[in-house]
């Protein structure tokens, strides 16, 4: 069949600071084809597409549309060359109807007549088999309807080259089928479609050719008909790189955190956690692998008590058997409660009862170290707020993905950020800055944080230093469970190794470490076990010492349906 | 590619500064005030006939500025008194502004407190001992201010009602509440309440010294509260990021309501100082727009209670100096508003040059130059 | 019954002041800017118009020309204020509340300085008959409606038409709702913000002009103008950000504000002096109720524009 070139990229390079996002990428797109772009997180897929769509401007390289070299500086330029991109995060005005969003910013001759627009939108929708009500407001729409609006928005502007960034990430299987039908119809109509995805099954299902990107470079473009899943996975993840990360065998691994049948629907009503069940052991690093947005963030937030709508159980095992209770982590109220439940005995194994004792007497007894736990303490964290979890004496540390938006306060210095976790302690009313300052100084010294001083706002620190401050604080709290989401994202090699080392030290001291990562090489080298998530569900838990990258890659990318079909 | 690189960057490119040396920031602000004063001089030449005819007398204009606050000790005390009241209201607003709760209702919160304390004086004055009366007036003032601030705070916490518009409207409800009470209280229909003989805050030394000391104490106290207590810390965290607050288990709603109660109560204190300390009466103009001026004072000081002493002083200096000018040069009594307005424009505008960096792309397309 | 009609007409005439003010404010708010400078801008509009009338009042120019020049004078000064506000908040990204309040301080003050030196007999004499076209010379209450009143209604309706029926309005609303989205589809956010603020200020300025020379037509009118600027901001909420609803809202507000002097004539309502402030308080109370009820019902169409009060800085995308 005669192929006509619609778009050519030659030697496209883009750098962000010292990071090279795309390195001399060449790519051809034909008329009337669906080209899939495949690659891991951070391989530069989206950056490359953003340069075609006018969001970024390439540092080097040439772009040709229909054989003519073009310069694309803005989304408007892209539209002028009949290129349109559907971003992962929709750019829509919630308050407007579908049709109003579609005509927004389009310069047309003649009077503005919403009726005509509605009609034209319905026509376009009909032509490609969309179902859409042009009068419906965006805020009333499901995610898939919003996506439809974005696609029609691009078509309305006359785009012949459509770029879709992870269009299936937010859709149900039925919606994906519908979308693919639409894409095939557009292909038949002569449009060129570029679809970014990491789901292999979908790539094989819908595309004509596949271009594979790895670490900012174009690896190969193959005809879909001539390839298979394992070949694609291999090209996507590349050779295994052995990293020099220490890993000791777990000592006395005992269950610390049990997560059972966790389900969560987010604000948009999407089912983001599907029946997640797993156990994290003390003295072990549990890696969590998965494409970004597969529910990792929601899972950690649900455990930390930040997702009040979650269903299911989170059980915390506090290894307290025969250990004395202290007021360091337990309030007097909680000690009384536990006492009433008969949870304590003394050194002679005699049950402890606080009946009829005054607060001062209890305090004296507890502080003598003679009140011991009979059993390991078992605490259900379900329906607990972060503060309640803390007050129950559960030492759960959480290094969130959003460091400056959630984990730290950007305008405050290191000392004040240390206090976030501990400021409630100390004399009533007033803050005690002495200990936090000592802690801040210790972290600066131990982790070699590069900062002008303990009071200089953390916003001004580099990414690596910010992360050291955050991880340092969460560790200083001597956790029993440490959850870290993408702790090395954006960090240089040295800082990354500092973080790995810290996680390892926590593991050695018996902490259950949950590590959400994106680099499979790191996950394989650092973790003891790896839990793989895909679309909010656990698709497998593998032994990190024996698993291969391909194995994990397949678990990450296979859809439920594909697995069911295989079975 | 050559063609492309010409369009690499737009001509002017802005970026947020990550940090600026405090000294430099203050120099920029000082320059803005100086520039503003020059423009004020030009405006005066346009508006004041005597200067229009004889521009040489512009020196006298600036001299009168200083004279307004410092020429006699009576003027100086008046300056300190007005400064204290303005400062007190500005301080009251500070906790809520730190929390990014844009309270535009200080005027009403203060006015309603004046009304509350005068109401107690009006009904109970002479019937109970003076010391008890003063205490009851104090409680009434604080309670009224707190309630006035609490209503929008509860709606904000519960339904996320827009606090700027809500508090703004509450100002006028307070104004008409005062006119209503005056109609009821004043039998002869003149709607002006003669100065009451009871409920006068005792004086020490000068007439105004006690008030000045109370407000200074409040400034220091509030500084300590905001910087050194757990409450103050929680306010800062909520103001900076609600998500961080949730992450560490701070109840955002509780902090909003508690902080607005404090804000209202402090407005109540300002109302008490006006009602019991100065006027022993209430009119719709008892606060006289200082509730709005206080917003600007607090903002100029970047919500730092100690810096606020300076910014309130600056505004009061301008006000009183310009008032002297309107007297000496025979212009309308509204002239100070013009002067304050002009200076504010310059200070507001100069913040841009503190927070942002302007880069100009040079013609050759080389590295962008940056300009302060 | 005639009495009620008279009263309704008077309320309409009074309400035109806030009809102008809040139509102008709605345009600005729809672009995402809460302009608390509107009271000052209305004052400056009044001052600008009167300055012109003062200069040409006795020049013997034809009446309609004097009216038009007066309107232009009002537009010039109020739009200049709008320009100051936009420069500070759009270009220099200053805090909108503080800038607005400073503008109100400045505008209110400057108007008083200017007006106190002018001779009301000059700026008010003007072509009085002409503002009152076509009812001039009538003996009944219709005589208080004139050209500037009808202009207010037309402007309010036109503003609604532009906002909700044209492409320009669609773009403007997009800017106020979600400037990043508007920017991404190639709408010039800065241009729209400037234009909406300046045009809105011009419209609000006409309100001040109308109040001083037409509705009140008195020497002291300018002293009470600022308060009605604040009432205009309340009316924006009451009208749920829809200019055509300001026509009804302003009548209601005008009714409540002047009702106290009116109902003393009605035998079956017992009024005292104390009724007046309560009635005058009502517009604000009702506005608060509207604000709370809309936030409780949380219907998206009745909320303030989503990015109201937030500066837009593209690099933060």
Notes on the protein architecture:
- The complex is a heterotrimer of chains A (567), B (372) and C (317).
- Chain A has 567 residues and is an alpha/beta fold.
- Chain A contains 20 helices and 22 strands.
- Chain A has a six-stranded mixed beta sheet, with helices on both faces. A six-stranded mixed beta sheet of chain A has the order 18-19-20-13-21-22, with helices on both faces. A four-stranded antiparallel beta sheet of chain A has the order 2-1-4-5, covered by helices on one side.
- In chain A, strand 7 (161-165), helix 6 and strand 8 (192-197) form a beta-alpha-beta unit.
- In chain A, helix 14 (414-422) crosses helix 15 (434-446), helix 14 runs parallel beside helix 16 (463-476) and helix 16 (463-476) runs parallel beside helix 17.
- Chain B has a domain at 81-312: ABC transporter involved in vitamin B12 uptake, BtuC, CATH 1.10.3470.10.
- Helices cover 72% and strands 3% of the residues of chain B.
- Chain B is globular.
- Chain C is built from 13 helices and no strands.
- Chain C starts with a helix and ends in a 20-residue tail after the last helix.
- Classes of the chains: A alpha/beta (567), B mainly alpha (372), C mainly alpha (317).
- The interface between B and C is large, with 52 and 58 residues.
Features:
heterotrimer; B: 372 residues; mainly alpha; ABC transporter involved in vitamin B12 uptake, BtuC; 3-stranded antiparallel sheet; 15 helices; 3% strand; globular; disordered N terminus; disordered C terminus; C: 317 residues; 13 helices; 0% strand
């Amino acid at each position: 069949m005669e192929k006509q070139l619609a778009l050519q990229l030659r030697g496209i390079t883009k750098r962000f600071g010292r990071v090279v996002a795309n390195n001399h990428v060449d790519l051809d797109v034909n008329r009337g084809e669906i080209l899939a772009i495949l690659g891991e997180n951070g391989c530069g897929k989206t950056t490359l597409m953003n340069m075609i769509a006018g969001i970024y401007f390439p540092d080097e390289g040439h772009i040709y549309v229909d054989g003519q070299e073009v310069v694309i500086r803005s989304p408007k330029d892209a539209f002028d060359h009949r290129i349109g991109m559907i971003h992962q995060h929709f750019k829509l005005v919630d308050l407007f109807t579908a049709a109003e969003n579609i005509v927004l910013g389009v310069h047309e001759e003649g009077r503005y007549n919403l009726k005509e627009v509605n009609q034209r939108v319905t026509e376009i929708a009909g032509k490609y088999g969309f179902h859409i009500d042009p009068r419906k407001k965006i805020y009333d729409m499901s995610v898939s309807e919003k996506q439809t609006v974005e696609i029609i928005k691009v078509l309305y502007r006359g785009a012949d080259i459509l770029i879709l960034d992870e269009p299936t990430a937010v859709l149900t299987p039925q919606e994906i089928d519908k979308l693919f039908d639409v894409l095939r119809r557009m292909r038949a109509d002569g449009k060129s479609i570029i679809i970014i995805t990491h789901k292999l099954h979908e790539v094989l299902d819908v595309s004509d050719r596949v271009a594979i990107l790895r670490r900012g470079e174009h690896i190969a473009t193959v005809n879909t008909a001539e390839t298979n899943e394992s070949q694609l996975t291999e090209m996507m993840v590349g050779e295994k790189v052995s990293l020099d990360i220490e890993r000791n065998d777990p000592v006395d691994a005992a269950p610390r955190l049990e997560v059972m049948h966790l389900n969560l629907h987010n604000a948009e009503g999407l089912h983001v956690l599907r029946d997640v069940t797993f156990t994290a052991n003390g003295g072990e690093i549990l890696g969590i692998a998965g494409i970004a947005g597969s529910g990792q963030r929601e899972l950690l937030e649900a455990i930390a008590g930040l997702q009040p709508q979650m269903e299911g159980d989170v059980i915390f095992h506090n290894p307290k058997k025969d250990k004395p209770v202290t007021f360091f982590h337990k309030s007097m109220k909680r000690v009384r409660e536990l006492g009433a439940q008969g949870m304590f005995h003394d050194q002679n194994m005699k049950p402890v009862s606080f009946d009829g004792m005054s607060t001062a007497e209890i305090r004296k007894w507890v502080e003598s170290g003679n009140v011991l736990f009979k059993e390991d303490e078992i605490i259900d964290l379900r329906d607990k707020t972060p503060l309640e979890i803390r007050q129950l004496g559960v030492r759960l540390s959480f290094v969130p993905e959003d460091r400056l938006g959630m984990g730290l306060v950007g305008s405050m210095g290191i000392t004040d950020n240390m206090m976030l976790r501990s400021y409630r302690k100390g004399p009533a009313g007033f803050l005690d800055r002495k200990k936090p300052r000592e802690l801040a100084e210790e972290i600066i010294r131990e982790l070699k944080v590069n900062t002008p001083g303990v009071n200089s706002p953390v916003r001004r620190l580099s990414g690596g230093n910010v992360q050291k401050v955050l991880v340092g604080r969460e560790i200083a709290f001597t956790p029993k469970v440490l959850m870290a989401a993408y702790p090395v994202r954006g960090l240089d090699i040295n800082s990354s190794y500092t973080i790995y080392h810290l996680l390892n030290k926590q593991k050695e001291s018996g902490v259950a470490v949950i590590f959400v990562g994106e680099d499979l090489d790191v996950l394989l080298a650092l973790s003891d076990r790896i839990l793989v998530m895909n679309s909010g569900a656990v698709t497998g838990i593998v032994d990190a010492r024996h698993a291969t990258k391909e194995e994990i890659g397949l678990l990450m990318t296979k859809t439920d349906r594909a697995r069911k079909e295989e079975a | 590619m050559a063609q492309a690189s010409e369009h690499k960057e737009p001509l002017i490119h802005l970026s947020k500064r990550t940090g600026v040396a405090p000294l430099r920031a203050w120099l920029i602000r000082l320059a803005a005030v100086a520039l503003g004063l020059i423009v004020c001089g030009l405006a005066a030449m346009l508006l004041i006939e005597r200067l229009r005819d004889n521009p040489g007398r512009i020196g006298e204009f600036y001299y009168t500025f200083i004279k307004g606050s410092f020429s006699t000790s009576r003027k100086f005390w008046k300056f300190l008194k007005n400064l204290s009241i303005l400062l007190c209201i500005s301080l009251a607003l500070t906790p809520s502004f730190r929390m990014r709760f844009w309270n535009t209702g200080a005027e009403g919160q203060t006015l309603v407190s004046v009304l509350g304390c005068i109401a107690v004086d009006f009904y109970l004055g002479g019937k109970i001992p003076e010391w008890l009366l003063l205490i009851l007036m104090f409680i009434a003032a604080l309670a009224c201010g707190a309630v006035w601030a609490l209503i929008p705070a509860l709606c904000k916490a519960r339904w996320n009602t827009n606090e700027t518009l809500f508090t703004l409207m509450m100002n006028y409800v307070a104004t008409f509440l005062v006119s209503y009470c005056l109609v009821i209280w004043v039998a002869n229909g003149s709607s002006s309440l003669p100065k009451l003989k009871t409920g006068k805050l005792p004086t020490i030394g000068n007439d105004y010294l006690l008030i000045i000391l109370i407000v200074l104490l409040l400034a220091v106290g509030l500084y300590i509260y905001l910087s050194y207590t757990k409450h103050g810390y929680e306010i800062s965290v909520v103001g900076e990021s609600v998500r961080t607050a949730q992450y560490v288990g701070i109840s955002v709603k509780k902090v909003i309501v508690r902080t607005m109660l404090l804000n209202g109560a402090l407005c109540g204190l300002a109302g008490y100082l006006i009602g019991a300390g100065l006027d022993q009466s209430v009119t719709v103009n008892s606060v006289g727009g200082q509730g709005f001026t206080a917003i600007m004072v607090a903002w100029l000081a970047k919500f730092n209670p100690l810096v606020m002493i300076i910014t309130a002083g600056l505004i009061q200096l301008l006000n009183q100096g310009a008032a002297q000018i309107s007297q000496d040069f025979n212009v309308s009594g509204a002239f100070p508003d013009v002067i304050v307005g002009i200076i504010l424009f310059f200070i507001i505008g100069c913040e841009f040059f503190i927070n942002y960096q302007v880069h100009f792309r040079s013609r050759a397309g080389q590295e962008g130059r940056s300009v302060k | 019954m005639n009495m009620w009609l008279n009263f309704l007409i008077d309320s309409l005439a009074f309400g035109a002041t806030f009809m102008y003010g809040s139509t102008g404010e709605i345009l600005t708010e729809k672009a995402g800017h809460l302009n608390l400078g509107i009271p000052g801008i209305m004052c400056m509009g009044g001052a600008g118009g009167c300055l012109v009338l003062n200069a040409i009042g006795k020049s013997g120019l034809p009446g309609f020309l004097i009216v038009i020049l007066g309107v232009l004078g009002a537009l010039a000064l109020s739009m200049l204020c709008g320009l100051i506000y936009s420069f500070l908040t759009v270009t220099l990204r200053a805090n909108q509340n503080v800038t607005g309040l400073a503008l109100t301080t400045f505008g209110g003050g400057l108007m008083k300085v200017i007006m106190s030196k002018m001779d009301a007999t000059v700026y008010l004499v003007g072509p009085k008959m002409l503002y009152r076209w076509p009812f001039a010379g009538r003996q009944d209450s219709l005589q208080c409606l004139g050209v500037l009143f009808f202009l207010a209604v037309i402007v309010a309706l036109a503003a609604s038409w532009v906002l909700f029926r044209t492409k320009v309005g669609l773009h403007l609303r997009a800017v106020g709702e979600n400037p990043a989205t508007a920017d991404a589809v190639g709408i010039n956010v800065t241009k729209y913000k400037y234009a909406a603020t300046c045009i809105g200020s011009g419209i609000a300025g006409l309100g001040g002009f109308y109040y001083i020379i037409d509705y009140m037509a008195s020497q002291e009118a300018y002293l009470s103008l600022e308060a009605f600027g604040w009432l205009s901001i309340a009316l924006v909420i009451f009208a749920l950000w829809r200019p055509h609803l300001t026509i009804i809202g302003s009548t209601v507000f005008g009714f409540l504000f002047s009702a106290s002097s009116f109902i003393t004539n009605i035998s079956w309502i017992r009024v005292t002096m104390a009724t007046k402030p309560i009635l005058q308080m009502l517009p604000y109370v009702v506005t608060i109720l509207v604000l709370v009820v809309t936030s409780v019902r949380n219907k998206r169409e009745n909320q303030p524009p989503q990015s109201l009060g937030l500066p837009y800085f593209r690099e933060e995308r």
